[in-house]
Amino acid sequence: MTKVAFIGLGVMGYPMAGHLQSKGHEVTVYNRTTAKAEKWVSQHGGAMAKTPREAVKGVDIAFTMVGNDDDLRAVVLGDDGVFAGLAKGTVLVDHTTASADVAREIYDLGKGKGIACIDAPVSGGQAGAENGVLTVMCGGDKKAFDGVKTVIDCYARACTLLGAAGSGQLTKMVNQICIAGLVQGLSEAMNFGKRAGLDMPTVIDVISKGAAGSWQMENRAPTMCQGKYDFGFAVDWMRKDLGICLSEAKRNGARLPVTALVDQFYAQVQARGGNRWDTSSLMHLLTND
Questions:
Q1: Which CATH architecture has domain 170-287?
Q2: Domain 3-164 belongs to what architecture?
């Protein structure tokens, strides 16, 4: 059993912390909205704290899962932040999807305090978090990674160290770039098939077994054809992620023409009120001119 803290109980963090508790670890949680932390404790046990600093006192590993770079700095830095309470020799694992810059910033600040930091964004969405089958992409030092991997495995089906600090975030950017282009192509294909008068459930069943098959096709194509988008990974979150990708691309010189175009398509979805719709709602632009 390991003493851990989990900071951030959103749609991802809530079940992830629950898996840690159910696997026998001693978990203390913190959430900006206290009611969410109280609900988590009533459901899973463990303990809650009023500040990140209080939550991490005496723990071996602190986990964070918040919204963006600014949110991460808010819970890690400052008088009531994670770094103010974590002891030397402990590890901070950040699951936030954020920039590689903030990952390196946190890593350097942590190193100065004797705290190892791992940037560890995840893929798999809310369902992956609830079912404990996330893919975790990590950046940081191997010794620290080796020390926390078995704990991360409580909610992961794959957890891999990709390189130095920031490498986890960069890998997540690759992941989101792939998804953006894939979902747009899937949307166009599903709309084409419907307008051609095909039996789309049968079409999906057939082509998902061939070279066009993907997780998105198997899990989103049926609901796309039904015009259902009120679930899943929100467009607002995807635009945040793609903004990070596009900013990094400006820095490293990578050309992302399709990604930039799809980002603008998502802006159109937002303009239609689809901020919280699933990313598969790109199809809404094609079926509702």
A1: Orthogonal Bundle (1.10)
A2: 3-Layer(aba) Sandwich (3.40)
How far apart (Å, rounded) are the C-alpha atoms in residues 255 and 169?
18
- What's the burial of 138, exposed, middle or buried (CB within 10 Å: 0-12/13-18/19+)? buried
pLDDT at 10 over 90: yes
Residue 111's contacts (CB-CB under 8 Å, 6 or more residues apart) are 117
Instruction: Give me the helices (H) in the chain, please.
Output: 13-22, 34-44, 52-55, 69-76, 82-85, 100-112, 125-131, 142-152, 167-195, 200-207, 215-225, 235-252, 257-271, 284-287
Q: How far apart are CA 277 and CA 230, in angstroms?
A: 5
* Torsion sign, CA atoms 34, 38, 43, 48: positive
List pLDDT tens digits, range 81-126.
999 999 999 999 999 999 999 999 999 999 999 999 999 999 999 9
Q: Active-site positions?
A: 172
Contact 96, 65 (CB under 8 A): yes
Considering the chain, what is the average pLDDT of its residues?
Answer: 97
Residue 289 has pLDDT above 90, yes or no: no
Q: Say which residues have a Cβ less than 8 Å from residue 109's Cβ, sequence separation at least 6.
A: 77, 83
SS3 288: coil
- What pTM does this model have? 0.95
Per-residue pLDDT reduced to its tens digit, 33-83: 999 999 999 999 999 999 999 999 999 999 999 999 999 999 999 899 999
The answer to whether the beta carbons of residues 37 and 86 sit under 8 Å apart is no
Nearest-10 Cα torsion for 178, 270, 135, 167: 70
In the chain, list all ranges with CATH 3.40.50.720.
3-164
Phi/psi at 160 (5° precision) = -130, 140
